[in-house]
Specification:
Layout (H helix, E strand, L loop, with lengths): L2 E5 L2 H13 L4 E5 L12 E5 L7 H17 L4 E5 L12 H12 L4 E4 L7 E4 L2 E4 L2 E2 L18 H5 L7 E4 L1 H5 L9 E4 L4 H11 L4 E4 L6 H5 L17 E5 L4 H9 L5 E3 L2 H7 L2 H10 L5 E4 L4 H11 L1 H21 L4 E5 L1 H11 L3 E9 L2 E8 L2 E8 L8 H10 L1
Helix pairs in contact: 2-3, 11-12, 12-13
The chain binds adenosine-5'-diphosphate.
Adenosine-5'-diphosphate binds next to helix 11, helix 12 and helix 13.
């Protein structure tokens, strides 16, 4: 195994898997550290954790366990994958987990580059841009769990780590000049070639950490060239969209998918009535169409809900509701699930008891279909990070599976 990856959420893991498959690697993806796998039969193993917003100690413990497992399986290098918008809080968990993995691998330095040029995430002079806006001016400033109000990644990382933080600027990377001698290195990247230059120079020398795109040059560098897997046979056609992301892009995608029957979850009603009204509604619609069930809302409404229920409780309540609904739908014959939201996807996979997926072709950059076996037969899951996918993502997804 060339590479062992640890991802801080489930959609981040599928994003990484999709890009590595595109780049020519065979990818096995595990949700959590697998208890029953003796040997990984793949070029890359990814362990998806759900630790982005966990307390720091718990995130460190989970990531260390995952890293140790991957090294034991023969991973030549580790890769720490987080969001391309560097989602974290002043406590962590990006920096503290990197420091724990450095201890595990013996690396003295860790390099950080969340850039994903194809999806409009770029880092220039250490500042992260989302499309044409600085991170702190992008919709990420309103994220329900990890609002990002600072664009300088050096400033974001500094309070999270005990070691020094330096910047490896684009001009220096292009000129092949050595990275700074700090324990932590933020690296610029605006174009895909910049990521290739980083990997060419730093592969094996430092602990690589980043978004999914930084890993993409790795299969080429180690000369992997596997063709993309096809859709497995026998997957039922009944479909559903479950959306827990409040990102601007997911809300646009919901707008564009107007033709499907839709149910908007009211979190305050959910807190008192549970999922039965939603389930009753779905049963009246199914099995004819791909329904949409969503809690996604605008920032003002989300804050109003959080003020009433508490931020964590509101998030957990909605995640549990969508997970419980997915379980009932699986028993009722749904076999194609599109899930919007990183935390939401984690909750749905855990509820469905899916522990291992095969990564297939991408629907759009960073969002592949994945395939799993369940006690009710094979299923397809598209796990979408809130910000990812074009406006017609939901239609594109179902079309991609049929075509
Ligand atoms: P993203 O990928 O956009 O970050 P996530 O699923 O990771 O999406 O995070 C969104 C969080 O917001 C989840 O915990 C979800 O349960 C919560 N959430 C969704 N809708 C609402 C709402 N209407 N009010 C409050 N919280 C919400």
């Amino acid at each position: 195994m060339i590479l062992g990856c640890i991802a801080d959420d489930f959609t981040g893991a599928t994003d990484l898997g999709g890009l590595l498959v595109r780049a020519g690697a065979r990818v096995a993806l595990y949700f959590g550290v697998p208890a029953d796998v003796k040997e990984v039969d793949a070029d890359v193993a990814i362990i998806a954790l759900k630790c982005r917003t966990e307390p720091v100690d718990s995130a460190i413990q989970q990531a260390t366990e995952a890293g140790a497992w991957l090294l034991k399986q023969g991973a030549e290098q580790l890769y720490w994958k987080y969001c391309s918008t560097f989602d974290s809080t002043p406590q962590g968990n990006i920096g503290p987990v990197a420091e724990a993995l450095m201890e595990l691998t013996g690396h003295k330095q860790a390099l950080y580059c969340p850039a994903f040029p194809e999806n409009g995430r770029s880092v220039f002079k250490g500042h992260l841009f989302v499309l044409d806006e600085l991170l702190s001016e992008s919709p990420m400033r309103h994220h329900p769990l990890t609002p990002m109000t600072e664009s300088s990644l050096v400033k974001v990382l500094e309070p999270q780590v005990s070691g020094s933080v330096g910047l490896w600027q684009r001009a220096a990377i292009k000129a092949g000049q050595q990275w700074p001698d700090t324990a932590h290195i933020i690296a610029d990247a605006v174009e895909f070639d910049d990521l290739g230059s980083i990997v060419d120079q730093a592969w094996g020398e430092v602990l690589l950490t980043g978004g999914s795109a930084l890993a993409m040059p790795i299969p080429g560098r180690v000369q992997l060239n596997t063709t993309t897997p096809v859709v497995p046979e026998g997957i039922g056609t009944q479909s559903v969209v479950l959306a827990g992301s409040c990102s601007a892009q997911t809300r646009r995608q919901l707008q564009s998918y107007q033709h499907a029957p839709r149910y908007k979850i009211n979190p305050l009603e959910l807190a008192t009535s549970g999922i039965e009204p939603i389930w009753d509604w779905w049963q009246q619609q199914a099995p004819t169409s791909a329904c949409v069930i969503y809690a996604s809302d605008n920032p003002a409404s989300v804050i109003a809900v959080q003020n009433q229920l508490g931020t964590e409780r509101a998030g957990a309540l909605i995640e549990k509701a969508l997970g419980d609904l997915a379980v009932r739908m699986l028993s009722a014959g749904v076999a194609r699930f599109v899930v919007a939201g990183g935390e939401t996807s984690g909750a749905v996979c855990k509820a469905l008891n899916v522990s291992h997926v095969q990564v297939g072709q991408e629907i759009s950059p960073g969002v592949p279909w994945t395939f799993a076996q369940t006690e009710h037969g094979p299923i397809a899951l598209a796990l979408k990070s809130g910000n990812f996918g074009g406006d017609n993502f939901f239609s594109d997804a179902f079309r991609g599976l049929n075509g």
